[in-house]
Amino acid sequence: MIEVLRSPSEMKNFRKTLKGSVGFVPTMGALHAGHESLMKRAAQECDNVILSIFVNPTQFNDPKDLEKYPKTWEADLEMAKRNGVKAIFFPRYEDMYPDNYKYKVIENDFSKILDGVDRPGHFDGVLTVVMKLFQIVSPDKAYFGEKDFQQLTLIKGMVEAYFLDLKIIPVPTMREQDGLAMSSRNVRLTAEQRALAPWIYKALTQSKTAQEAASLLSEKGFNVDYVTDLQGRRFAAARLGEVRLIDNVQI
Known about the structure:
The protein has helices at about 10-15, 35-45, 65-70, 75-80, 95, 115-120, 120-135, 150-160, 190-195, 200-205, 210-220, and strands at about 5, 20-25, 50-55, 85-90, 140-145, 165-170, 225-230, 235-240, 245-250. By secondary structure, the chain is of the alpha/beta class.
């Protein structure tokens, strides 16, 4: 039987009853095989797995994007059950932000480049909600996918900066057979856009330079936000219609 806990106090009380280590997988729901790989890894390494599902409004700088974010509670619940999750923390906005977002966690360097340029305030929302989740769940390990590598790097940095007593575990990006990085947003692509989408991964891996990759994506019909080589990785964000896709590879 999987527990579904709505309030921070319920979650904290449940946490006190657990024996052994706790692995935590924070998500916004609309779960796919990428999320499943995080749960599986957590189950291998920890005695208990806790999943959170919370579509966090403070990390969306486009209200339309927030409105259209897919919600698939029944399927998410089934996936959690299949992967040995003990409890799902499923809070409401007022539970997570009793202060109405007056207090926030801000990083002033790496969060200002790449995705930070096109999505001002996005990483403030991410870091703030993740800090809150860590305080509520008190995990020993937390699992994040490498697809959001900038997010992963910032969360690792926050954990170090605030001396949080937990370990961040990166998990490799899960891809469709054609190379497209799995994302909850992929369901919003039209059939034509979905056929084009794998070119992001092809451009990142097959181009000699970031500039060449950006040109290739523009030729294919993407609206390119950036392609950048940084810290031994090549990062990209590009749009097909209303859907913004991100990816990164080691170079």
